[in-house]
Amino acid sequence: MAVRTITHATEILSVILGGGAGSRLYPLTATRSKPAVPIAGKYRLVDIPISNCLNNGIGRMFVLTQFNSASLNRHIKNTYHFSAFSRAFVDILAAEQTPDNPTWFQGTADAVRQGLRHIEPFESQYVLILSGDQLYQMDFAAMLDQHKQAGADITIATIPVSDREAPEFGILKSEEGMITSFIEKPSPSVLPEWVSDTGDEMKKNGRVYLASMGIYIFNRNLLFDILRNEFKDATDFGKEIMPQSIGRYKVASYQYGGYWTDIGNIRSFFEANIELTEEIPAFDMFDSHRTIYTRSRMLPPAKISGTTMEKVLVAEGSIISASRMERCVIGIRSRVGLGTTVVDTYMMGSDSYETLDELADNKRKGVPPVGVGERCYIRNSILDKNVRIGNDVRINGGSHLENKDHPLYCVKDGIVVIKKGAIIPDDFTI
Asked: What are the C-alpha distances in Å from 34 to residues 7, 135, 341, 367?
C-alpha cells in the first residue's frame, strides 16, 4: 500500500480512539467495538479515519482499543500492509495494566495518556487525535497548515451548526480564528451569546454556532506535558482538557464545512448508510482523490437476476434474485431469494459462503440458508452479519413499533436490527 507524501515523514502522527462500549449502537456492538461495525456494505468505521490520514500523507497511526476489540484488531491486521520501504504503519494499542496504570481507559484523554509510553519513541512535532466512529472526509494537511500558520498550541476541528443542533454539542466561541470560550450542550436560552462568525454561506443557512468535532491537533510537547503533568487527573478531552486549555493556551478553530456525522446511535447509523444510496450522496465514496481503503477480498462479481432496483448499493460476491429493492445497501456475500422485496434496509452480508453440502445438511435440519429467503418483505431494517432469514418472513420497521430487545432482534427508534447470526424461521412477522 502506497502512502501519499504530503507531510514530512516525522512531522505528525495520528492517534485514533477506538471508542467505549458503544452501548447506544447495541446490538451491533454486542460482539464488536464501534469502529469495527461494518458500514456501506464493505468497509468498517475505522477505515474512515485511517483513509483520511492516508489521503493526507499521514502514514503513522496508533489505534487505541479496549472493548470487544478482537474483530477490530483482526481487521486492521488483515488490511493495512505497507511497503517495506515505507515508514507507514497502523499499530494497535490495546488497554493494558501497568504499574502506573492499573485500570482500563477512563476516557479519551486517559486512553491517550496510557498510550504515551508507546507513542513517545516515535519522533513528531504534532499529534493528530481522531475519533474512530465518525463519517467524514477532511483535509488534515490543510488543518495542519492552518495550525502552523496561526502559531497555535492546539487546533480543534469545528463544524457550524444551527440553533436546533447546538444543544447536542459542545459549542465554542471563536474570534478571528481563535477559540475564546466553551460551553457543553448549551440550553436554547443562552445560545445568542455563543454566535461566531462562520462565514456568509453558513450564516444564510442559520449555521452560526461552532461545534467541536472531537478532532484535535496538538503540539507534541504540549500534549505530553498536559497529560502527564498539568492535567494529569483529567480523563476526557472534550469535557475537561479543552475547556481548561482555552485562555491558557493558543487554541485555534479549523472550520470544516463538508459532510460529517457522528455515528452515535442506531438511527444515525441507519440514516448514514441509507443516505449513501442517493444519486449524489453527501459522503462521496467515488472520489478517486479520497479513496476509502479497506480489506481486499478475492470475491466474484455480484450476480443479479430479475430484480428491479432503485438506488441500491450492492457489494461484491452477492447473489440477488429479489423481486424489488429500493434504497438499500447490500453487503458482501449477500443472498436474497426470489419474490422478496427489500426497502430502506442495510444488509451487512456474511463472512463466508455455504457449500452445497452445508446447504443440503441445513435444509434437512430445517435451518434457512445464510441470507434472506423467498417471498419476504423487509423494510426499515438492519440485518447484521450472517443472519438466516427463512421464507415468507415479514419485517416492517417503523414508528409504530415500540423499542424492545428480543433474543433474535432489537427495535430502536423504529429500526429493526436482526442480530448477528440470528435464525429467523419461515413465516416470522415483526
From this structure: 29, 12, 29, 30
Q: Rounded CA gap, 55 and 13, in Å?
A: 14
CB 182 within 8 A of CB 126: no
Q: How far apart are CA 193 and CA 272, in angstroms?
A: 32
Report pLDDT digits (tens) over 349-393. Answer: 999 999 999 999 998 998 999 999 999 999 999 999 999 999 999
Structural domain includes residue 282: no
C-alpha separations of 88 from 79, 82, 112, 255, 393 in Å: 13, 6, 20, 28, 48
Q: Give the domain range for residue 345.
A: 303-424
Domain-located, residue 69: yes
- In this structure, the dihedral spanned by the alpha carbons of residues 215, 162, 152 and 230, taken in order and rounded to 10 degrees, is -60
**Distance in angstroms (rounded) separating the CA atoms of residues 268 and 349:** 20
Calculate the CA 254 to chain-centre distance: 21
The total number of structural domains in the chain stands at 2
What CATH number has the domain bearing residue 172?
Answer: 3.90.550.10
CA distance 2 to 118: 24
Residues ≥6 apart with Cβ < 8 Å to 4: 54, 55, 56, 57
DSSP state of 25: G
Convert the pLDDT of each residue in 166-176 to its tens digit.
888 889 988 88
Backbone angles phi, psi at 409, to 5 degrees: -155, 170
Residues 263 and 383 placed together within one structural domain of the fold: no
Instruction: Quickly list H helices, 158-310.
Output: 200-204, 220-225, 242-245, 266-274
Q: What angle do CA 119, 58, 296 make, to 5 degrees?
A: 105
Report yes or no on 179 lying in a domain: yes
Alpha carbons 182 and 185: distance in angstroms, whole number: 10
Look up cell 441500491; give the residue. Answer: 312
Q: Write the CB contacts of 293 (distance below 8 Å, at least 6 apart in sequence).
A: 1, 47, 50, 51, 54, 79, 80
State yes or no: pLDDT of 10 exceeds 80. Answer: no
